[in-house]
Amino acid sequence: MPFISENALEQALVKAAKNPAAGPDFYRLLLDSNLLVMGTAEGMESASEEFALSPGGKLNLVTGLKDGVQYLPVFSSMPRMQEFVKQETKFLSIRGRDLLDITRGAPVILNPASEYGKEFSANEILQLLDVPGAGIPQYSIEEDYPAALVEALASVFTARPDVLTAWMVKVGFSDRGGERHPLVGIEMDTSGDWPSLIKAIEDTAQAQAQVPGMVFDLHRVDRINPIGLTEALLKTRPIYVGAAGASALN
Q1: What residue ranges do the domains of the chain occupy?
Q2: Cα 137-139-144 angle, rounded to 5 deg
């Protein structure tokens, strides 16, 4: 089903997916707009009209599981939620900032079944909430990557046939003083085990003397659903191409 934007947040989401420079508007609207989340408020399970959550009130929210990791699915509109949920379900409408503050510490996926969505780690959520302007990436396309990091990644990738291609850009976050650090985009085949790959990379980075303490982030690249900085990564020269990935680039 074609993605038709239902509101200003979804319009900003589409723009940001195609052009990372449009990210600030998306992040601002994400915090200021109402989001839908599956679940109920304690004591208001039978509510059928809009209500305000009382101070100290508790939410009972429905979570999902992706790659063995639990996350909170949230939605930018009713059609986006209906793409994910095929049966009638209870849901709440809560301002984005309030919802993320209540559930801080939980990974979040916006519109998990839609053409356009966004994954947020727990750390990214905290950046958005606690640091003005944080979480809004300012990136530059540079290819002077740390040799030690590239070498460490290559040693992992060559042992993983499920890794197709990898790219890198430099990204800066305001909570890190604007200092730019590598963002590694990794494309895996359909059988790819993302959690085990992350662990292998972390273990290898820690084992190599030049890499421990180096700040870098990992981003899973999906060409069909290019969210986040995927578009920027795909415009750069790959730092690694596996045997199966070579055919994908042609």
Answers
A1: 8-130, 138-249
A2: 140
Instruction: Quick: pLDDT tens for 206-218.
Output: 777 566 556 788 8
How far is 92 from 115, CA to CA, in rounded Å? 22
What's the confidence (pLDDT) of residue 158? 94
What are the tokens at 193?
A: 């085990």
Q: CA 5, CA 190: separation in Å to the nearest integer?
A: 28
CA atoms within 13 A on the CB side of 82: 5
Distance CA 206, CA 201 (A): 9
The separation between CA 157 and the C-alpha centre of its own chain, rounded to angstroms, equals: 22
**248 has pLDDT over 50:** no
Can you tell me the distance from the alpha carbon of 2 to that of 68, in angstroms, rounded to the nearest whole number?
29
Task: State the virtual CA torsion across 225, 231, 233, 235 in degrees, nearest 10.
Answer: 130
One-letter amino acid identity for 107? Answer: P
- Give the model confidence (pLDDT) of 118-163 as tens digits: 998 887 888 788 655 555 555 556 666 788 888 889 999 999 999 9
- Check residue 122 and give its pLDDT: 83
Amino acid at 80: R
Q: Which two tokens stand for residue 233?
A: 């990564």
Site of tokens 């990379």: 201
> Structurally, what CATH architecture does the domain formed by 138-249 represent?
2-Layer Sandwich (3.30)
> Residue 163 contacts by C-beta under 8 Å, 6 or more apart in sequence?
156, 157, 186, 187, 188, 192, 197, 240, 242, 245
Q: What is the pLDDT of residue 73?
A: 95
Percentages helix, strand, coil for the chain, rounded to the nearest 5? 35, 25, 40
Nearest to 216 by CA among 249, 161, 176, 156: 176
